[in-house]
Amino acid sequence: MHLKRIPLLAACLVACLGAAACAPNMSGNVYGPSNALQAQNVATGTVTNVRTVEIRSAPGNSDRVIGAIAGGSLGSYAGNELGDGNTLATGAGALLGALAGDAAARRVNRIPAQEWTVNLDRGGTIAVVQNDTQLFVGQRVRVINDGNRTRLAP
């Protein structure tokens, strides 16, 4: 492997891994700027159930194209280096890299979360999905609603 190409390989790898860290935080403790300094309705209740769910957003075509291009580029480079310039190895690396890049782009759009069921003190039951593991069944919680979103907080 040519030592001059190692920084390029490292940069491609960091870019691919960095995309996975860009998933939004859907915890009850995270607020966006539009929520600051806004009155929000608060109710109280008790958590009665929790189950694991997955928040999934469909990846946009551009996300998948970028993932495939980045993966294909990295794969063709690796195939070329490992195959000592062999065209077949370069092509196979590009194909496998493109498939891996597309799969990574689809995976970034999956966020593990929990569905929390809460019996409200005022009557009624609600379920709120958020990725917040600090809550537990039997816990008293505040149910905070800004008119669009509902979150749970201890």
Q: Describe it for me?
A:
With 154 residues, this protein is of the alpha+beta class. The protein folds into two domains: 1-27 and 58-108, no CATH class; 31-56 and 112-154, OB fold (Dihydrolipoamide Acetyltransferase, E2P) (Beta Barrel), CATH 2.40.50. It is 38% helix and 28% strand. It contains three helices and five strands, in the order αβααββββ. It has helices spanning 6-20, 61-82, 87-108, and strands at residues 41-56, 110-120, 125-130, 140-145, 150-153. A five-stranded antiparallel sheet has the order 3-2-1-4-5. A hairpin with a 4-residue loop joins β4 (140-145) and β5 (150-153). α1 (6-20) runs antiparallel to α2 (61-82) and α2 runs antiparallel to α3. The longest helix is centred in the middle third of the chain and has 22 residues, at 61-82. The protein starts with 5 loop residues before the first helix and ends with a strand. 19% of the residues are buried.
Discrete helix count = 3
Give the % helix: 25-40%
Structure class: alpha+beta
The protein's oligomeric status is: single chain
How many individual domains? 2
- Cα Rg: 22 Å
Mean model confidence by pLDDT: 76
Strand order of the largest sheet: 3-2-1-4-5
Question: What's the end-to-end separation, in Å?
Answer: 54 Å
Number of strands: 5
What is the 3D shape? elongated
As a percent range, the share of strand residues is 25-35%
Element-level helix/strand string: HEHHEEEE
**Poorly predicted ranges (pLDDT <50, ≥5 residues)?**
19-23
- Main pleated sheet: 5 strands, antiparallel
